[in-house]
Design goal:
Number of helices of chain A: 23
Number of helices of chain B: 3
Number of domains of chain A: 1
Oligomer: heterodimer
Shape of chain B: elongated
Largest sheet of chain B: none
Order of helices and strands of chain A: HHEEHHHHHHHHHHHHHHHHHHHHH
Structural class of chain B: mainly alpha
Radius of gyration of chain A: 22 Å
CATH topology of chain B: Helix Hairpins
Order of helices and strands of chain B: HHH
Helix content of chain B: 55-70%
Distance between the termini of chain B: 54 Å
Structural class of chain A: mainly alpha
Strand content of chain B: under 5%
Largest sheet of chain A: 2 strands, antiparallel
CATH architecture of chain B: Orthogonal Bundle
Largest interface: A-B, 48 and 44 residues
Number of strands of chain B: 0
Radius of gyration of chain B: 21 Å
Strand content of chain A: under 5%
Number of strands of chain A: 2
């Protein structure tokens, strides 16, 4: 029973996608299936998370091959938390898509491909095998390519060209890094890798591979030198796609960094983690500055995605239990807020009747839709980090962790980035809500069928409620985050759960060959 | 083999420096093949020792070539092929839409002059 539960985050969206494919010519059936699959995923993910947090790490050996040989699925607190939050975002975007997606994109297979994207995201979160992680990245990537270019407008094609090019290179880097790591250790299982890497004679090589991993995952996560593709691409596709990209895709990169640099590459933290620290600091500042430089709502939010990636990686780079807990907390907060912001930006665009969300076209939102303004205030204030919303607690934890370890410059960068964000939020509020309307507000929502209007509004309400709920009652999430932080800092439980408590690593085929190679002069 | 990988990566990077999308794609082909050869190389090369279990033996003999990298490469080739065919189709579509494959002329998503 538990085995199926642990594999469910992959199996449920995969089944949904397959069924949607079967109903290719019946969009209505696809809608129902997509919704049902998303709800099922949320429920099962919740059960999985509860099981993991109460009963410890859940492990499944695929095909019953013992740990270092077969593919392992591991649900530790971090994975479980990420899957829950990803499934909720999947549900919100699926519901929003019901109201927003146009017939052309729906005919083009939006629903099945969206589910395949969820397969890739959940698979990346739950796998315990490095090569398998690469495969899930690919699943995620190819479906994101299709979703990005689905609809085929000129802007989308232009964005997709750059997105595809950079991601193909990132993929090759990741594969090379995985291959080299396999070459020096003879294993691909993450728990087994963490046992074997300290035994490798050439530690310089290990550090070099670690840097290759930083590059590969840094490109996915949009860290400082590799972030330029994100603001070029994220504002172009359909709104539900923008939201799920902003909410989840870069965070999978952050999750992978978290996993790899807490479990595997912990031998030379002075080198690897200081690189991460520098990248995080510059990312925060550059992202915030970039968001101020654009005069377009969704593009400003794209830059904000970059800025907040920096904050999370800062927590990883400091790597105390508190900092890791702060990163986990911040991840949850940021995924919810970013998804919400992109979804609401889509609604704002509809209300202003414009083709895009340039500041020049916005205005008069308070007169057009006062309820939306109240709703929007929650994610905006949370993004800026006003107490008592979720962004405040995340920043507070990060600042505390930074001060405890004397990373004063990083704390300053975080606070400056926060300040710039407040500036941006103020500007957005002034442009979008207070400014006189540029054109008479389109009565789009009123003219829409009631079901569609609900489908557009419900996700926003739900996400704002989550942000508000985390804000006023952070204890529950804080205790979960503390559990995640502790499990990331001391990974012995993870290793023991995967390898079954074997003290000595089992020699594999390549391990023996390597031994022979070592004997040769 | 290592030298071949190095040469292919160098060629790929040279092609990446081009502004033509098609050349960048050729660079990607070269790079992904370089990585595949790298996987084979790091899996330790052995000559004429197929990884087969002998008739009466339970396990493989020592020193046979390592079958795992071949499985990994197979996966990587399949994935790389899928990605590449998508990228080529995208390139064709981009050429149809914009009439150019010069990446520095593609400024639709990020227009240069904005107040």
């Amino acid at each position: 029973m538990n085995h199926w539960l642990t594999a469910a985050p992959i199996l449920v969206p995969l089944t949904t996608a397959a069924l949607c494919m079967l109903a290719w010519n019946y969009p209505v059936v696809q809608r129902v299936l997509s919704l049902a699959g998303s709800v099922t995923l949320v429920v099962l993910a919740g059960i999985l998370a509860a099981t993991t947090l109460n009963d410890g790490i859940q492990v499944v050996q695929m095909g019953a091959w013992a740990a270092p040989f077969g593919i392992t699925l591991v649900a530790d607190p971090l994975s479980a938390l990420m899957i829950v939050i990803a499934s909720i975002m999947g549900l919100c975007c699926a519901v929003y898509a019901l109201g927003d997606i146009d017939p052309v994109r729906e005919r083009g297979g939006f629903h099945p491909i969206f589910q395949v994207l969820m397969v890739g995201v959940c698979g990346a979160f739950i796998t315990g095998d490095l090569f398998n992680l690469y495969v899930w990245f690919e699943v995620m990537l190819i479906s994101s390519f299709v979703l990005l270019s689905l609809g085929g407008t000129k802007v989308q094609i232009d964005a997709a060209v750059k997105y595809v090019a950079i991601n193909l290179v990132a993929t090759a880097c990741l594969l090379l890094a995985v291959a080299l790591l396999y070459g020096i250790t003879g294993t691909l299982n993450m728990a087994d890798l963490s046992q074997r890497l300290p035994q490798v004679a050439n530690q310089g090589l290990v550090s070099a591979i670690a840097v290759l991993f930083i590059i590969a995952f840094g490109m996915k996560a949009a860290l400082f030198p590799f972030f330029f593709w994100l603001p070029a691409a994220y504002h172009t596709p359909a709104v539900a796609v923008q939201a799920i990209f902003a909410g989840l895709l870069t965070k999978v990169g952050v999750y992978s960094l978290l996993r790899v640099f807490t479990l595997i590459f912990i031998g030379d933290t002075g080198w690897t983690h200081s690189i991460l620290l520098w990248m995080a600091g510059i990312t925060m500042i550059v992202g915030a500055l970039g968001s101020l430089a654009t005069r377009d709502l969704t593009r400003a939010w794209s830059w904000q995605v970059v800025a907040h990636i920096g904050s999370m990686v800062m927590g990883l780079a400091i790597a105390t239990p508190l900092a890791l807990a702060a990163t986990a907390f911040y991840l949850v907060h940021d995924i919810v807020v970013k998804t919400n912001l992109f979804l609401s930006a889509g609604l704002v665009r509809r209300l202003s009747g414009g083709e895009d969300t340039a500041f020049a076209r916005l205005g008069g939102l308070f007169k057009a839709a006062p309820w939306l303004c109240v709703l929007l205030f929650i994610p905006l204030a949370s993004l800026a980090g006003f107490p008592p919303l979720s962004g405040f607690w995340g920043k507070l934890l990060l600042v505390k962790a930074g001060l405890e370890t004397q990373h004063y410059a990083m704390v300053a960068a975080l606070l400056v980035s926060g300040l710039l964000t407040i500036w941006l939020v103020g500007r957005v509020w002034a442009e979008m809500v207070w400014k006189a309307p540029v054109q008479p507000p389109a009565a789009l929502l009123a003219s829409m069928a009631r079901g569609r209007a609900y489908a557009l509004m419900l996700p926003l309400v739900l996400l704002s409620l989550i942000t508000f709920g985390i804000g006023v009652n952070p204890d529950r999430l804080l205790s979960v985050a503390a559990q995640v932080g502790a499990s990331l800092h001391d990974t012995s439980a993870y290793v023991e759960a995967v390898l079954g408590g074997k003290a000595e690593p089992v020699p594999t085929l390549v391990g023996e060959l390597q031994h022979q190679a070592g004997d040769r002069p | 083999m290592s030298l071949a990988v190095g040469g292919m990566v160098a060629g790929a990077i040279y092609l990446f420096l081009s502004r033509q999308f098609l050349r960048i794609l050729f660079g990607v082909i070269l790079l992904s093949n370089a990585v595949n050869v790298a996987i084979l190389t790091v899996g330790r090369l052995t000559q004429g020792q197929p990884p087969l279990i002998a008739r009466n033996a339970e396990i493989m003999a020592q020193g046979v070539s390592n079958p795992l990298p071949q499985a990994l490469i197979l996966t990587a080739i399949v994935i790389g092929f899928g990605l590449l065919s998508f990228a080529l189709a995208l390139g064709w579509r981009a050429y149809q839409e914009m009439g150019t494959l010069d990446t520095s002329a593609m400024r639709v998503a990020e227009p240069e002059d904005r107040p």
